[in-house]
What does this fold into?
Amino acid sequence: MANVLLYERPSSSLLFRNVITAVHGQSTITGISSYRGSSEVWSGEFIYQGKYDYYDQECGEQMDDIICRDRSLSLMDRERAERIVRRFWNGARSLFEHGHFDYFYTISIDCYEIDILLRLAQRYGIDAVSWIGTFLKGYARITLRGERRILGRHVTCDEAECLARQLLDKVYLPASESSNIQKKKQDVQRFYVRRKLIENLYNPLQKVLKHDPDNLMYNVYTFPDMTFDDVYGSNYDDYFTSLDCIQIERTNTIYYPMHLIPEATTSYWCQDVITPGKGDNISSYAEYVKRFIAEADPGIHFLIKEHPAMFGRRPLTFYRELQSYSNVDVIHPMVRSNDLLDLVDNVLVDDGTVGIESLIRGKRVLSLEENYYSSLHPNISVVPRVTSGELSTRIAEIDPIAFVESLLADTFPSDYDNGKNQNKCAVEPIAAGVKSYLETRNGSNR
It folds into this structure.
């Protein structure tokens, strides 16, 4: 009988407990959650008890990295953030030492609590399992920090050909783009008002009513550097360049699609984006973008497109700074990636799915990070900086169906939703994917 530690939230608890039972049979499950009363262990039991406030060398060595990646801790007073991390780390360490767990299951990493639990699971040699939905609709994959986990699933030619045809369609949009591509200023304004009410009224009230002032969920701030006038007084279109107005040479131009911030795939998947000591992760990402532009070889032109979901959410000063570069055009977030890909031979990514769409279309892709597909195609190179030499390498002619087949081999069919409807997802497909992963991994360890 398996002994399992589960990090859970109300939106995912039922699904995860059912998957664990389907995979391991009758199991002992100990849940831990940031929500009081929803699990066997409440994280506040550690955060609000002084007995857990002592120095641990390993925690101290990783403190900067833990704080700067988390969207709540990175904006807090440093002393308060360190106290929260110390106490949760020491409490969680005690939980691991006394729990004797066989497995740690969790939703995909998106906060310091999961980050610390994963670090401790690794410290104690405990198998950790999490899964996420993919931009390939109807598929999920096993991963902890965005890395590729081998499943080795058999993919039929018909399955790969069908998906390749879908991805190559001119009107294809991944979910992250299709849900945001029609946003207008009124949508931005509504979102701004809603978030301000949540951050300035609802969350402070919850802290008092639930006696939980350090709860990570009640300390997330979406607009730390934006004002009411930024949202209601500015014309956002003035900060972007129309495709009709740009003049480029496709061979020395690079398209870079920006990321959503703060977001798990940036904060926890990209190792270089969030730099310790650089302040909050929103500012760190801005510095990261400016750094790779400044370090690029002269003569390289960048088409930088804002993420559709970030329309109206990023400080306007950042766009002004990008516009000051003579070799940069800032493209409107509502422009479709496919339209930009028609104009260039080169694409720059970190771990974004635009890299996959680009490789399928025969583009040269440079990646500033190792990612889950960077070893699956000859036309992607992992580079420390952007150089002219990289833009002159030969682009190999690769069958897009073969590439899609290799991508699908490490996924499993599932309706898993990365949003708030996870408890409605089907259990058996996820359980089958987890079983396949555990069997593959255990087989490779023999």
About this structure: Residues 185-209 form the longest helix (25 residues).
